Amino acid sequence: MLHYKTIPEDYVRRTEQCAAAAQAALACNRAAHVTALRGHKLPQLAALSPKVRAFVERSAALCEPEHVHVCDGSEAEAAALLLLMRQQGTVRPLPQYDNCWLTRTDPADVARVESRTFICSERERDVVPAARAGARSALGNYIAPHDYDAAVQERFPGCMKGRTMYVIPFSMGPLGSPLSKIGVEVTDSAYVAYSMRVMTRIGSKVLEQLRKDEQFVRCLHSVGVGGGTAGWPCDPARTIILHRPADNEIVSYGSGYGGNSLLGKKCFALRLGSVIARREGWLAEHMLIVGITDPKGRKRYIAAAFPSACGKTNLAMMTPSLPGYKVECVGDDIAWMRFDDDGVLRAINPENGFFGVAPGTSEATNPIAMSTVFRNTVFTNVAETPEGGVWWEGMGPAPPALTDWRGQAWTPDTKTPAAHPNSRFCSPAEQCPIIDAEWESAAGVPISAILLGGRRPAGVPLVVEARDWAHGVFMGAAMRSEATAAAEHAGKVVMHDPFAMRPFFGYNFGDYLQHWLSLPRPGRQMPKIFHVNWFRKDQQGKFLWPGFGENSRVLEWVLRRCDDEPCHVTTPLGHVPAPGALNTDGLGDIDMDELFSIPKDFWLKETECIEKYFTEEVGEDMPSEMWNQLNTLRENIKKA
Length: 640
Ligand code: O2Y
Ligand code: MN
Hints:
28% of the residues lie in helices and 22% in strands. It is of the alpha+beta class and 640 residues long. The site of 3-[(carboxymethyl)sulfanyl]pyridine-2-carboxylic acid has 11 residues, from helix 9.
């Protein structure tokens, strides 16, 4: 639990009279935000359920904000937040589009900060596998309870002085769905308050729900003091993101950016979510969800895990090239999945919007995203055109003059990128023209297959089906991919990223694998598991597979396999399409032999890498089944 100072006696009265206080502040010309919120009807603290109120009051006592604003989720509130952000210099309008806004962050606050992200528990082993005890782990940064408390006490007291503390009640998943969960984020960032209304379902309806069931995740966030720019305060030197699963608590300080500050996303939906999911017997995964309708009108849903920047949003919004196929989007980043009483795995997208990487998004790569993002969107760190539009690398030809993401004049001769490589659009999911009719279904959508993938330039075939569930779990454990721009690792290194969850495990990875292995039960319909790789290259460095909409050909084969059609052959790695079974009609020259080759030397080295990883990162917490699977793979390769 956080340690809070006593609440100032007049505090509640002060915040309940927030509108009046706003007027007063305006009169003494203290804070521009007050103008924006003036006259807006503020819900009373007294209307909060007791636990929410206690959390808000404790947070306020700790952070000492000037005002407290409980977000009701209304349009008027959104307008007020935008006006305030304009006055503060946090957003600029983009007149070329409808209700679109541009934010430029401090250049030191542009991405998730993995090295400063920690999970707290009584025992280190709850978080970090045995092999890494006492050392730094790539699979989970541990922080001890006393260090956690100290980190909070070093940063939060008085950090919101002179600011408004926004209280954001939010639902991850459709409100009222048995698969959904509720959080309350308090933050001193209007940008976070506005973005949370896009990325989650916020406001009074959530408070109503909380009056029926008081369970929620407490999320405390401050952009911090002492650094940043006028429109983007932050404290990069002292940024820290803390999770305490046992107390359903997230605390984040110093960064206003994406995954560090929109606490419903990676912090709640994945890190805390994975812990809750294990406790309650379900899965919280870094997966997109899509519905695929075949030419006969039969619809199936798949979930797919890819590390950041592997074309996940492109797959989630795919325009299939195969005639008669339709792909519809349920979610582009996170899946919460639970077996129902009939043994069907059902998934919801806990989010309400897309926080997608802008660079590389174009009419050619993702026309659906392009028709989603130019309304009601906050763009962060993209370039601005003189006409008040946006541009990023990979969107199309560079305009002759731009303002880059740092606010500097930019021309095509400039040596640095116009948009930051991790620049983002934050858009409502409902605007996606192919949003699935069932995307807000309370019951979730039934999952037929799970895809795992990565960016593997060499050695890894286009698609491989796992022999069974345990083999699929091994495939997930052994996943590797070229590193992404969102993480802190620069350059092109093929990194281990099991289940695309490496930065997001909320508990010991060995226990996570054990949880996955424990899921098959009599009466459950286990989805088939596949590993895909759209990124294999030939000797000349050219992609062997066209990707994008042509990936629908792989999905077609996947769905045929889900129907148990015998369109496969068995290889040392698992099942792959039988000769001729993958529809390549009209694709021209595809070197199928190279695309599906299984080079012996490569795979013997790969098994060594996997063994080293399992040994050095997991050790005795690795379930024995994973060692069995590795031995089977090695034997299969040797025999081939
Ligand atoms: O760098 C950030 O803060 C954003 S990271 C992100 C955003 C949306 C979806 N996925 C990711 C990710 O890192 O996986
Ligand atoms: Mn992601």
